[in-house]
Design brief:
The chain is mainly β. It folds into three domains: 133 residues, Jelly Rolls (Sandwich), CATH 2.60.120; 129 residues, Jelly Rolls (Sandwich); 194 residues, no CATH class. Helices cover 6% and strands 42% of the residues. The protein has three helices and 35 strands. The strands form eight sheets. It has a six-stranded mixed β-sheet, with no helix packed on it. Strands 21-22-26-31-28-29 form a six-stranded mixed β-sheet, with no helix packed on it. α1 crosses α3. The protein is flat and about 75 Å long. The chain starts with a helix and ends with a helix.
């Protein structure tokens, strides 16, 4: 009897919505150069960690952003939290359930008692990703639940400290300076000749920009054929990169061929949008060429080398919690693991429900999620924040903190357990995120067979399979990864079995 009671409580926890803020989120756009005066009003204790949310857009040619925040009533509220994010709506995972990824934030100052000023990208301490041509999101919240009955007033001000000419982007040659560098937008069919590349005494960078499409890429490959053995290559999402800034990929080693030095750099799983390649000359005059190759993943493929299966997710087909089975395979000394990806197109202010993924403790593997890019278990190129990555036993969820931004969200499910792993997918229909509702899944043309949509490029569902919630396209597998057949079965029984196995 006790086990039955525990199971009911367990299922309630696994599938209940965790909605720390009452009602839908509301984000207020703000304009640089305009003072924002606000106050966190008294609230019920259940809503003690309510946050005020703001957003602003940083154009591509902005090279630094100056942010000033003042706690204007330190008598009532000793500290106020200020969070900043370019990935999504921020908050603190200390105040909200860590199973829900609103922790995509940089906490400025760990609680502000009076005043703080930050000039990015210099003061980021490598914790905040400086992104251009993107929206930045700000959350202002209480530092302690003891302040929930008080009014916490504040001022917030930002301005763009410096800008570059159109067609240029800021790159930091040192830890306290940004220079503006013109960039060349890459055409992968061309070879780019570099003559007298940035001699000593001038700016030290040659910059290229790659446009990453929505149907995203496995990797960007850069080859530089140079007369110099002193080059450094950097790649970075949404901003110029150098030794003094965050970068997603880096290469300084070379292969010597006659009198030339060949540099090869791979930048794996970039997100959709602008990706900048910087060649740092290190004050050396050089000649050479640069070529680029972008591996665009075809329909039904995903991952660093487009070698894993990818399935669109259709919320209209998910009528009940559903289990995805990911087979594992291994033979002799050659052990491989099963992996699959699926994606979900979510419009901003989506309101039809929260997506919850659950993997039991009786198996080994990972759940990873990433917006507008393929996730991997690599923290440098596969996910932005630790809250988007978890090993089994795991619960990973999408709720209104994510839906406010929207986009194409990719999920990685993998398995290290023989013979397979099960991940339960649940759509909680009680979301209060506001906005329009409706079918947000990507549905391909074809015939629906037990919930599996198939077309001329897609695999046929196996007779007798119970498939709910995914639409499929063609799939490939890498040499060391088994080709997982996707099998979905009703999840309540499977979840119950996993629960009872813990006793």
């Amino acid at each position: 009897m006790n086990k039955v009671v525990c199971l009911i409580a367990f299922l309630a926890v696994a599938f209940a919505q965790v909605n720390p803020q009452t009602g839908p989120l509301s984000v207020t756009p703000i304009t640089p150069g305009v003072l924002v005066t606000g106050a966190l009003e008294p609230s019920a204790q259940a809503d003690a960690y309510h946050v005020d949310l703001y957003s602003f857009f940083v154009p591509e040619n902005v090279s630094s952003v100056n942010i000033t925040f003042t706690n204007t009533d330190t008598t009532s509220c000793s500290y106020i939290n200020l969070f900043l994010s370019t990935y999504g709506i921020p908050c603190s995972d200390d105040e909200y359930s860590s199973d829900y990824q609103c922790a995509n934030a940089w906490d400025i100052g760990g609680g502000i008692s009076s005043y703080t000023n930050i000039l990015t990208p210099y003061d980021d301490n490598y914790l905040f990703q400086y992104d251009v041509n993107q929206y930045w999101y700000v959350a202002i919240g209480r530092y302690s639940s003891y302040d929930y009955t008080d009014t916490c007033s504040y001022n917030f001000y930002l301005n763009f400290n410096s800008t570059c000419a159109p067609g240029s982007v800021g790159v930091a040659p040192d830890s306290s300076n940004v220079v503006c560098e013109p960039y060349t937008t890459v055409n992968t069919s061309l070879t780019y000749t570099i003559q007298n590349g940035n001699p000593a005494g001038t700016n030290d960078f040659t910059v290229f920009k790659v446009n990453v499409p929505t149907t995203t890429v496995g990797h960007i490959y850069v080859r530089v054929n140079s007369t110099s053995s002193d080059l450094d290559l950097y790649g970075r999402q949404y901003a110029g990169a150098s030794y003094y800034t965050d970068y997603d990929c880096y290469e300084y080693s070379y292969t010597t061929v006659g009198a030339f030095y060949i540099y090869d750099m791979f930048c794996y799983t970039p997100r959709m949008g602008d990706f900048f390649i910087t060649i740092d000359t290190n004050d050396v005059n050089w000649n050479g060429t640069a070529t680029f190759d972008v591996l665009n993943c075809g329909v039904g493929t995903a991952g660093a080398n487009c070698s894993f299966p990818l399935y669109p997710f259709n919320t209209s087909l998910l009528v009940a919690p559903t289990t995805l089975t990911i087979p594992y395979s291994g033979s002799g000394s050659s052990v491989s693991y099963g992996s699959l990806y699926f994606y979900w197109d979510i419009p901003a202010n989506y309101s039809a429900g929260d997506l919850i993924l659950y993997a039991s403790s009786s198996q080994s593997g990972y759940l990873v999620v990433r917006r507008n890019g393929f996730p991997t278990t690599d923290s440098q190129s596969g996910y932005e924040y630790y809250s988007e990555y978890d090993s089994y036993n795991a619960v990973l969820a999408m709720n209104q903190w994510d839906y406010q931004v929207g986009g194409r969200y990719y999920f990685l499910l993998n398995c290290y357990t023989t013979p397979s792993c099960d991940v339960t997918v649940s759509l909680n229909s009680t979301s209060t995120s506001g906005g329009s509702s409706g079918n947000t899944g990507m549905v391909t043309t074809g015939t629906v067979v037990n919930g599996m949509t198939t077309g001329s490029v897609g695999p046929q569902a196996t007779t007798g399979s119970v498939v709910v919630g995914l639409t499929t396209g063609s799939a490939q597998t890498s040499d060391n990864v088994s080709s997982p057949a996707v099998i979905l079965v009703p999840s309540i029984a499977a979840l119950a079995a996993a629960f009872f196995a813990l006793f």
